[in-house]
Amino acid sequence: MTGFFLLDLLLFGVVITAVAGMAASWVDRKVTARVQYRVGPPPLQPFTDIVKLMGKETLVPAGVSRAAFLSAPLLGFCAVAAVSTVLWVNQLSSGGFAGDWIVVLYLLTIPSMGIIMGGFASKNPYASLGSSREMKLVMAYELPFVLAILVPVIQSGFAMRLGDILADQAAYGAMASSLSGAIALAVAILCMQAKLALVPFDAPEAETELAGGVFIEYSGAPLAVFKLTKNMLLFVLPFFLSVMFLGGFRFDGIEILWTVLKFVGLVALVTVIRNTNPRVRIDQALRFFWGPVTIAAAAAVVLAFLGL
Amino acid sequence: MSMTLKALLKSPWVFHLSTGSCNNCDIETLDCLTPRFDIERFGMLLVGSIKHADVLLVTGSCNRMSVERLKRLYEQVPKPCLVVGIGTCTGSRGLFVDSYNCPVPLDRIIPVDVYIPGCPPKPEAIMAGVVKLIGKVGGGA
Predict the structure, then answer these.
(1) A211 vs B38: CB contact, 8 Å cut-off?
(2) Is pLDDT above 80 for A126?
């Protein structure tokens, strides 16, 4: 049993997620390039970047805690691999456990924790500023995200397993087809944007003012792990939303086409949002998430209780 | 050629440093990122932190104030890295050749892999220079 779980973790959690994440990252960069009337990078570019960074020198700034600085990237990487394994296990076999969506919610905050830890460990004013912004952003988006994820749980009769939510959607249609599910999906997509730290909510990284923010002191292999984690999140978050709202991924016959369309559609939507919006200040992001987004999410929860 | 070097040549991330240039070379460098030239086709990205960079693009005449910073930045680039001097100023100091403030050309301060002359060089010239550099490093290893 343990052996099988290890296989799932290594094969689906790490390898397939990394490959799919790099593909998603390429889709993101290519769509960005096309929106800007550019040609864009070749398909293997994200992979080349990771291999290159692995071969570079790793610099540790003087006077920082090596343990905290170097373990921060691994923390997020392990969490994303674990989330992906839980999702794949539910998707391919009914191997879930009671309360696995709660575990997924918790694990999905850990990459942000790793980023905050790495930023503060870097002993760089820009990185510290980026970390403090990341912390505020986590506090901003977690409440509406949890409320939005509650909606499919309520609609499927308080299912405690992801597998039950998937089975409910297979029987009665995707959650997003109801009013409350559609509102919750919109809220979840906005929270996904913030979780990925993409443009309207990219204040922690802010290339133009913080010069890379939390990642400023990272080089070589730790930076590669951070990049890989970001790429994997770009696969895992659309996958999670697809499981919760859109009936999940299926690999039988014509359903493969729908699976690819769901995934690429969500990634392309994120990319278009990031290319058509300016960056908001951190206080604006906080007000946005605690104001209209939380109200919409709470309304969706009430509608779900009413059965709409 | 090793796999990491091959990957380095296919995704050279660029850090742009002005050592007292008149800003023309900087404008022409940024032109390479615009839709017309689009160097992201070759995997090149402009990065904000020196620790992420593979290529150090230097413009300007290396005046006494900026030489200190230039040396410090060169020490901070994770190796292996490449250095490109853009514009006549970095190579021969251009019209500042007799200035008290610009004592030596760039290659007397840090090792330079390629010079791209011009005042300022056109984006086409910058790209041609980078392609030559990639050919030189890729062929020599």
Answers:
(1) no
(2) yes
DSSP letters spanning A39-61: ----TTHHHHHHHHHHTSPPP--
Work out the angle at residue A296's Cα, subtended by the Cα atoms of residues A292 and A299, and round it to the nearest 5 degrees: 140
Give the distance between the most distant pair of CA atoms in chain A: 59
User: To 10 degrees, what angle do helices A220-245 and A125-155 make?
Assistant: 20
Identify from B5, B9, B51, B137 which residue to disrupt to test chain A contact, counting A C-beta atoms within 10 A and taking the largest count: B51
Q: Is residue A68's pLDDT more than 70?
A: yes
Chain B residues lying within 8 Å of A223, measured CB to CB = 51-52
pTM confidence score: 0.88
Q: Which CATH architecture has domain B3-140?
A: 3-Layer(aba) Sandwich (3.40)
**Is it the case that residue A110 has pLDDT exceeding 60?**
yes
A44-67 core/surface letters (b: 16 or more CB in 10 A; e: else):
ebbbbbbbbbbbbebbbbeebeee
Per-residue pLDDT tens over the stretch A257-305: 888 888 888 888 888 888 888 888 888 889 999 989 999 999 999 998 8
Structural domain boundaries of chain B?
Answer: 3-140
- CA dihedral angle for residue A33, residue B85, residue A47, residue A39, rounded to 10 degrees: 20
Residues 6 or more apart whose Cβ sits within 8 Å of residue A209: none
| Chain B residues in contact with A220 (beta carbon < 8 A) | 78
Residue B27 has pLDDT above 80, yes or no: yes
A8 close to B (CB below 8 A) = no
Query: Residue A143 class from Cβ within 10 Å (0-12 exposed, 13-18 middle, 19+ buried)?
Result: middle
User: Which residues in chain B have their CB less than 8 angstroms from residue A207's CB?
Assistant: 48
The residue of A31, A32, A38, A226 whose CB has the most chain B CBs within 10 angstroms, and thus the best one to mutate to test that interface, is A38
Q: Does A58 touch chain B (CB under 8 A)?
A: yes
Asked if A287 is an interface residue toward chain B (Cβ–Cβ < 8 A), one would say no
Q: Which residue has the tokens 């620790």?
A: B51
